[in-house]
Amino acid sequence: MQKRMGDETPLDRLVLEALIQTAQDHLFIVDESGAILAVSPSSAAVYGMSREALCNTTVQALEADGVLSPSVSMEVMRTGRSAQLLQRTATGRQVIAEAHPIYWQGRLKRIISRSMDMTDVRLLQDEYALLQRRFNAHLSRGGGAGEADMEVPGLEIRSQVMREVAQLLERVAATDATVLMLGESGVGKTAFARQLHRWSRRGEGAFVDVNCAAIPESLFESEMFGYQPGAFSGAARQGKAGLLEQAHGGTLFLDEIGELPLAMQSKLLKVIQDGSLTRLGDTRSRQVDFRLVVATNQDLAKRVEEGTFRLDLYYRLNVIPVTLPPLRERREDILGIAERQLATLNRRYGGEKVMHPHIWSELMSNDWPGNVRELENWLERAWLSADSEVIGAPMMAAPASECATRSDAVVVSPAVDERGAPALADESALLAPGQSLKAALDASERRILASLAKELTSTYAMADRLGISQPTAVRKLRRHGIRLRGSAAAEN
To answer: Is the pTM of this model over 0.70?
Structure first.
């Protein structure tokens, strides 16, 4: 039975004191006037005052002195409801503070507040940002992935920006730090999350892919946390392990995390903090251990301001933010994506189709608002609609995203347009008898470089024309044995 206030026994008071003494968070107990009745020992270091001094003052005085900036307890006193806010302390720490009212006989009598220090998380973010800046500087000096494009199974990485993303993820994979994937829909967040999983020490474990926008809110808790037999009408007789349990020992990937219902945000935060969960209809908790990777195409910080995403969960997730740029900002990757998709389609449908060179400039010039997903789907439609082994006769005029029946695969043409993309070519650019696609691409690359070498005098100009880094331009020239106009130009 619940005890009424005032009926506490000495044992109850000992239990309360033990809870305060051992609290990991910074715990405050405040009365209805703002007087501080008790604080946890960890609060002293964060707020820069001893427990005795804190217990001899009020939250109003602490806010006025800048010790609590602002006071979450005063917010509860003003509104009468639970509150959560980002707080800066006089010691320069940044904490997430939340407070909850306790009512007795219809009147506010106590406020319980606790805060979590986020300063260390911010320092970890700053450390990774510094590592990424150093890595970018290393690439600009000519270091990095080497002469060939970076090989990552299932991914096509030819642009410098995506090599930087992959290198960062490869370093982060050795830790269990939470990674937040940012970027437009279709840029490849799921593919990179899978690769992060393969690189990690959990690579042999499960990779559980959850689209938060695809699960109805009414089913979300049972799907995520699982349930016991008879937990609700229609529950499976043997019960069910939830997706969180299925990720034990592996990686949990939550796509579209911005669509997570508020009630589930609170429950997910508790799992992240405690490493345990309770199935629906169960009374015992179960330990879970997984690496969390989340993704979104939304501005989570804005959603926090709008009150649709929890601030404390946002900081828990935003440990290692990784932004994947849209395809229009990394056009060098289009060739590799198209090659891979062509090979996939030829295997899937049992053909040996190639692309007409006329299509190449269309692929390179389109902005692909749906990114990699749109490009792959468009190529599949083109493959299926082609009535010969050559996909896409030279009759394309509409932008690629508006066509429903054109090309796939890639054969490069010998010249380049003003964007550095290959221009149209004639039928001779198709694969020669017995020639592999790689050999044809290498030959086309050499023709492009040789053509530019006759008109450009520096590798910097060539890199700018082709949309690649200067070190990459130098390596490609050396590999093909091409020199620019002027003495020692290939070394520029």
So the answer is: no
